[in-house]
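fyi for ur records
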Amino acid sequence: MTQALENKPLETNNLAGAVETSDRVASHLHPEGSTNVDDHPVPTGREEVWRFTPLKRLRGLHTDAPFGPGALDVDIAAAEGVTVREVAAGDPVIGSSGYLPADRITARAWQAAGGATVIDIADEAVVEGATVITHTGTGSDVAGAGHVIIRAGKFAKATVVLRFAGSATVADVVEIIAGDGAQLTVVSVQDWADDAVHHSAQHASVGRDAEVRHIAVSFGGLVRLSASVDYAAPGGSAELLGVYFADAGQHLEHRLFVDHNQPKTRSNVSYKGALQGKGAHTVWIGDVLIRKVAEGIETYEENRNLLLTDGAQADSVPNLEIETGEIEGAGHASTTGRFDDQQLFYLRSRGIPEDEARRLVVHAFFAEIIRRIGVPEVEDQLLAAVEAELAAHLKSITTTTES
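which gave:
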């Protein structure tokens, strides 16, 4: 029999007892967080963490753009065994992941949300199917703010999907808490209209011997998504996967931070992106901090980008900060390039037309990550979205050739 988690932070994820506050700010790339908006200066674009972001296109999210109701329609389809509830500001479950906003936009969203939606998976619950939270932009003139907290109890197993679509200006916070031995998958799909602006901070706290898989999928609009992970106890494992497809004029920015603050923890980061059209811009920042206490850890991160046309730009910056040599392994890789001519030649030599050969290459490029989600319905929907992007790309090539 399952029961809802108590309305309190999970004991296994009380980071205050695991890592001192002064130790949590050892990385110069990640300053001490605060929920107080005034503690975060207005970014100018000269700061390292903002230098790639087109601030003028954020519609004032980083300054004083008003938040208000009506920007999003939210629908929640909870799987059997999952409890959904709303909590008001000040409830102790808010912030129970140990996360604090690291930038002004996130602090503004934290305050403007005025509470949070809590998704609870009870101890030892094995949830079939996915819980899906759909956010649909209404085209409102005011910005929307949101706060979602996903908590998996000890030895629980579940999948939660966050969907964003439509036209909106949004800033939100997602806290993910995996209790000891839990297996939790969180998929965040940003399938926005071209005029949407979305700033999202998503943080996961991984319990003892727990496994967290976080998958980010971004198509359309201007997206700046920061995904971070730390560990509440030894033995935890985190896998951060991502795919993105940027069209002309779109900006898709993904910032990853894995904080190995416990020994014998593991992380694996793999993001893949494709770009097409003039002004298409993607940014991937992968930061991994291995603290002095984190002996016996293993980590690897990679980012691969495929440029489909001229005029697109992909920035990729992997970083490793290592404070101890007593580790199992640490590495990173980053590549950006065009189609593999040998792959195309191989396919065309077997009678496959060039446009179909290009489609197959890109499809395989993304499918390797999408098929690791583990929810067939979600995988099929995402692959269909990739196919739609590819169809638009091939159509543009045909039009250009004919003209």
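The chain has a mean pLDDT of 88. thats all i got for now
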